[in-house]
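Page header: ASSEMBLY MODEL / two components / 382 residues total.
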Amino acid sequence: MDSARDSINTTDEDLATQAAAGSRPAFEELVSRYASRLFHFLRSRSGSDEDVEDLVQETFLKAYRNIGRYDPQRKFSTWLFTVAIRLSISRHRSQGARPLPLASEGPEHTSPGPQEALIREEEAGKAGNIWLQARTLRPSEYEVLWLRYAEEMPMKDIALAMKKSLVGVRVLLHRSRLKLGKKLRAPSPSAGLAEAATAGQRLSIL
Amino acid sequence: MLCFIHKWNISRAFDSGKPLARRTKRHLAGCETCRAFSQLGEEMGRRLTDDAASLLRETRPGLGEKVRQAIREPGLASGPSLLPPKRFRLSPVLAAAVALAVIGVSLVWMVRSRPTGMPRLDPLFKLESPRAYLQSALQRAESPYQQEILELKKTLKSTAGYLAARFDIGLGGDAE
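Prediction written out in full:
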């Protein structure tokens, strides 16, 4: 009971330090804290949920192997998300898929194929969750929004994780918000779905 | 006309948390589009935060356990490799650059052109040469008289020899 309460009160950075000293339970606690967050963060880079789960697993394995390199002065979440971004990019490249560099990317999210993209957009409209719409953006645009709004990461940490300058992150955020606003403004494929349509109308001025 | 600048200022204020610039505030008072952009940008931010929270409440069953199993597998990850922090290690690119620079400098040093010409002189010769040079210079300076004297000496010697042979006048060492 006490140990459970201790692990809840322990910060991520302390757990990472313990893991670096060889404590596997400490790292497993970090897995519990971050598995779901990483899963949603990496969803824009993969087609299927199974691929994303594999990517999450690989990220944790890489982090576990390299936990000795973690600098406790930095936030653990920034370090882990940095590992995740780099791994997902290198994985796409090694699989011979369309390269997804952080700085400049090609047409947005066509990797699952146009039909699948349409289905995805329709699902987004149905569910009404703004993140499902955001998933149709380019991966780096989705990721910057996730780090900013879901992780509530400071701008300098986002810049560090995405290997960008502060101005670069601000520009990317501005662009992502504008594009998301336009996507919400566009008529929903399933016309009767009230929530998405309402959101689209409300955000039409964006 | 300059709405895009004010929209950028509004967007920057969302991220920095700082208040809007006075000029943008003045613009907002008179521009309906930018005012709506500001309000709805805030609303979008709120929705992104709230919807992320609701998304994260839906946990992926088995994902955490799958990852933990992978970590426990001895073949895959036998434990954290306690490497020193990255900043203390020489990066491979830097090491390769240093090695290339060393090789380049040594190649240049090996093949660079040395001054060609006279072979190296013996140190003793070096010492002797100024003296020899001085002697020859003196000789050259005295040569007209020296030659004359030598010629006269030769003539005198041959004359004396002739006279001594012709007339036995007892000059020299034949005295008994």
